[in-house]
Amino acid sequence: MNYVVPKTALEASKALVQEGAFALAGGTDLLVKLKTKFVSPSMVVDIKQVPKIMGIEATADGWWIGAATPCAEIVEHESFCKDWPGVVEALSLIGSTQIQGRATLGGNLCNASPAADSVPALISARGTCIISGQSREREEPIEKIVTSPGVTALEKGEFILGFKLPKPQSGTGDAYLRLIPRSEMDIAVVGAGTTVSVDKNKKITSIRVCLGAIAPTQIVLDGLEDIFIGKEPDENSINKLVSIAEAACKPIKDKRGTIEYRTKIAGVLSKRTLTIAYERATNH
Ligand SMILES: Cc1cc2nc3c(=O)[nH]c(=O)nc-3n(C[C@H](O)[C@H](O)[C@H](O)COP(=O)(O)OP(=O)(O)OC[C@H]3O[C@@H](n4cnc5c(N)ncnc54)[C@H](O)[C@@H]3O)c2cc1C
Hints:
This protein has about 280 residues and is an alpha+beta fold.
């Protein structure tokens, strides 16, 4: 197995185009898969020295988060935490302190697990990612990347360079919750990320709810605008949200929960994240 550390995005793409090449960011998924012989790379491409791939910074219209920035660095960024507390909640749940010192958003997305914690939060925040390839860079909504468990829409030689999140307009709040069977270090039975914006009368002007671990890929709930826009949430609209969340579920059944349990929890977490996000929005 070869190991390379490209210094430019083009060098990284040229290395990644080779058969059996894998990108290495924090390695918290890849090394586990290597050790258990789930994958046998012919080449490991350590992408951490590619320019712009490490670090978090405010930009003219929002935030840039390099795809190989460790979660620990992101959760310590005070202004980012103020802007996107729900995204930070999601990152803070990944593994342990040790794991967070290495784990990255690029790895969490491209590992393509339906239960990845950061992904529903980033999708609900309407994040996009910049994909670097041999001949071009392209920008895609995050929900376009994972196509099925363990599979992404990235083409040969492509990798995620970084993520863009908008600057939340005044009156915006987000929240992320997950349920795990244990109190620590487990995979989500369901994860829910919600972002809402409100006007000065506390009426909702935009809403996005994304669920993880309830289907082969993360699911953005449809039809919420008709229920919530122009109104404050009430029992009736929240019950409709719960029904939509439950109807969107196509979960697996495993040792962490039955299909019925996951379906029920999807409704509960949708309701709870909406309540938290709405409260944050009205105080922002
Ligand atoms: C003990 C433990 C606990 C964990 N707990 C959680 C948890 O609670 N929640 C959760 O969501 N995850 C959890 N994970 C999984 C893992 O830590 C996360 O998915 C992490 O974010 C992966 O990031 P990484 O940088 O380590 O990825 P890596 O292992 O470096 O890479 C993962 C995959 O993505 C590819 N890749 C990495 N970066 C890029 C890129 N920029 N562009 C294209 N492809 C790329 C790699 O080739 C590889 O296939 C846990 C893992 C462990 C070992």
